[in-house]
Amino acid sequence: MNRQAEQPPLAADWRVAEERASDARPTAASIPDTSISGEPDPSQPTSGRPELRATTSGDATSREPLVNDVAPREAASRLREPGGPPVPGTPGSHRSASGAAAGRGGTGGTAAGPTCVIALDVGGTIIKGGLVGPGGDFLHTERRPTGRDGGPEAVTERIVGFADDLRATAEGLGLTPRAAGVVVPGIVDAGAGVAVWSANLRWRDLPLRALVAERLGLPVAFDHDVRAGGLAEGRIGAARGSGNFLFLPLGTGVAGAFVVDGRPYAGAQGRAGEIGHIVVRPGGAPCGCGAHGCLEAEMSGPAVARRYAEAVPGAHATAAEVVARVGAGDPVATQVWHEAVAVLADGLLIALALLDTDLIVIGGGLSRAGETLIAPLRTIMLERATVQHVPHIEAAALGDDAGCHGAALLAWDAVEVAR
């Protein structure tokens, strides 16, 4: 099934007229590679590379932004009233009460030259950053290690420092940053701009949006990395045209984003989609959340590598190498991979029993396995399904870069709200 072939032609700019916005959802290429395991694959910064072409409405989207549509016209008109308050739950409400953060960079208001936004996707192992123009081009991309071994304070400084360096890079390229988009893993209170908790990064109640805004002096959109990735896959990726789907990145960690009626669903406390912490193997491997046998502990990049090391004492192989050995016919790698895929199938069937979707989009580093992952996953799910309908499953169009694409989309949405 080629979902891309069903889509309408590309639009030239994100901020097309309101009446065209829901009809023009273009495709996108992704930012440079990382490994399947989610381990860092440091590369030199790149610039001048047009990698993302996206279209969105000039209207504000809600705090759980519409993926394949625009916000109601009356909400948009309220946002545009001079001095009027932002509509609760919109990207405008993600910013400080003053509407723009205070700091040395000012508000990022009118620009004399070309403009851009800063996009940051914080992962358990690497931070992906970029500068994105108003037409959707990634004008500069860069990756840095998260440095989680240094503890949450060191990780926080890496994030804020990376954002500041990207601002300086933008200015060096003659660009004027208008806003920043920052997306992070774990439990997120997007409205308050707080990273509540992360098993991998070990932070609690971190006011990250305020810290980045203070350093940059720009409006900052802040949200969950996987929900941002789901937003991007829905607007410009594999799920264009689908109003109800599950986006599931598999990398260093595992989490999901349920998109329901075109909106990434955050839940009452911003905790929806934490599929990685469904216990699928009671008494199994310890998880960073404190439980045992969670999906993340049994089927993630590090989990696959650990399983192979347990099966072949003394062996050291990344998840990418395990997948390569499966392709080469290695019987041990094949068994390890089959067991890991079966774990994923069980976790997805639990998720589908709770929320019936018409599509599953697999992203993250493990999505690079392609049909080596998707074909057996589909087969096992069909064998084990009871009341569940097994929907179409496909690899993410944006690969493991969906979160960075989503951060850019959220930042440009914030610019629109501020206009």
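Next protein, fold it too.
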Amino acid sequence: MTATASAKSKFTVLLDPADALAFDSLALDMRYRAGRRVEKSEILRTLIRLAETDPRVHAALAEALDRRQGTN
């Protein structure tokens, strides 16, 4: 089967309370700034594309993950 642009994969993300609160706060801020409803899935897809295409975002993500190594 060939994947198409409309085909989507579904994921479950388990967040601790602090991360869930931070994500909720980010979503509310993005909704306020955009002046429209912004779904959390849209935020995640946009962050993925940014990390994939913007070297600065990619490097910041890599550094953050390096700092978290061993803390999970």
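About the second fold: Residues 29-68 form one domain.
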